[in-house]
Design a protein that fits this description.
Blueprint: E1 3-10, H1 15-31, E2 36-43, E3 55-56, H2 57-65, H3 68-74, H4 76-84, E4 96-97, H5 101-110, H6 115-130, H7 139-148, H8 153-160, H9 166-178, E5 186-189, E6 193-196, H10 201-221
Parallel strand pairs: 1-2
Antiparallel strand pairs: 1-5, 3-4, 5-6
Amino acid sequence: MTIVTIDIVSDVMCPWCYVGKRRLEQALGEIGDKVAVELRWRPFQLDATIPREGRDRKAYLESKFGGAERARAAYSAIREAGAAEGIPFDFDAIAISPNTLDAHRLIRWAAASGEKTQGKIVDVLFRMYFTEGRNIGDPAVLLEAAGEAGMDVSVVETLLHGDADRAAVEREIATAQQMGVTGVPCFILDGRFAVMGAQSADTLARAIVDVATKKEEAPASA
């Protein structure tokens, strides 16, 4: 069976990335066993200037949108998209806008335990932040997420207290930017084709099948 790799460039403080994850899952359900897919979550930071301890959410929205009311209006489309995908966004519950670098380190380490574990930790972080208002820049919250995803919490705690893979994550983010990724989610299929934004499940499914078809036809063309 043809295998298509999908590198998902994403930030766990990006609500459209949460929507995009749900739509990708739907797309994979539509494809079924027609195409074998390997998923790899890649880091991106929408705002790397946020300090490690995070920023007060109210102050952050004031500087970004000009106030909570304008932010609420800007998020109306996201709320609707989330509701359609079964995501109960609760933006009012979020007290801290986090720096997500440590969360991306956690996602990177989860890959060592396999694709399912990495997907699980991403889902847990999205849920904690967007529906529970948890601070996913807080090491204690990250350890809780790691445990829920089935990771070795003692190992994760040791790694978080140091700088393991911090530079590697920053390099990955820089690489994505050099490739022209300016917004997320971005789905990179087989390292050659990019689908930008939280596209519909049908659009993602068609793109994946199209790439698989091209791969199957390539040997015959050669």
